[in-house]
Specification:
Elements (H helix, E strand, L loop, with lengths): L1 E4 L4 H13 L5 E4 L10 H4 L9 E3 L6 E2 L1 H11 L10 H18 L5 H9 L5 H25 L14 H15 L8 H11 L2 H6 L12
Parallel strand pairs: 1-2
Antiparallel strand pairs: 1-3, 3-4
Helix pairs in contact: 1-3, 1-7, 4-6, 4-7, 6-7, 7-8
């Protein structure tokens, strides 16, 4: 198994968490430097024509793509610990919370969108930062409303078991840090993220713990 990765990629962060939770160690980690535009090079476009990471190659055949699809693949090939509840409504709730991050928010702040804002729409750095912070906070506001009001919330987003919702929430919190969004405004989400980050699988996967990340004081 090999993963195409970059330290700052929040979507890849999600996959690293799942790999750690499942105890799966990839045979190879291939860096695709988003800041240098390596995702647009022909070699990687052959792996994922969308020019996005993560991508996961496992045995023969084309690489898997899109973080949520990869998370569910990992959950199916190694069911323990499970990343989805057993009941249909619980699974739908967890998937919904995860998709608020991975489908509604994160795609609006990825490098290709920021580059389009800069190069095509001539939005300055301040404006781009404001754009990113807005969409990250909007998702967190919606997630907080669910978590704070619904009985299914427990130690984690759904009961007392880590699910893909917690994995996605952790990645959203990392994005909030990158773009200056105060997690204190979302106390239930912040409490769950803090609990997640006490788990080694989450802590080791954090972007700032990866090769190539800037040194922390």
């Amino acid at each position: 198994m090999k993963i195409f990765s970059f330290w700052r990629s929040l979507a890849t962060y999600r996959v690293r968490i799942a790999l750690n939770l499942k105890g799966i160690v990839p045979d190879e980690v291939i860096e695709v430097n988003l800041m240098k535009g390596q995702q647009r090079e022909a070699e990687f476009r052959a792996v994922n024509p969308m020019m996005a990471i993560p991508a996961l190659a496992d045995g023969e055949g084309p690489a898997l793509f899109e973080s949520l699809a990869i998370l569910e693949y990992l959950d199916e090939i190694k069911p323990n610990p499970p990343l989805l509840p057993k009941d249909p409504k619980g699974r739908a709730r967890v998937r919904g919370l995860a998709q608020v991050v991975a489908c509604d928010s994160h795609p609006l702040v990825v490098p290709r969108v920021r580059e389009y804002l800069e190069n095509e729409l001539k939005v300055d750095e301040t404006g781009r930062a404001k754009w990113c912070a807005h969409w990250i906070a909007a998702a967190l506001q919606g997630i907080e409303a669910h978590l704070a009001s619904e009985k299914a919330t427990g130690t984690f987003c759904h009961g007392d078991q880590i699910t893909i919702a917690d994995i996605c929430l952790a990645s959203q919190a990392a994005g909030a840090k990158f773009f200056g969004v105060d997690m204190a405004k979302f106390p239930t989400a912040a409490r769950i993220v803090q609990t997640c980050m006490s788990n080694d699988a989450f802590a080791r996967a954090h972007p700032l713990k990866q090769p190539g990340a800037p040194a922390q004081n």
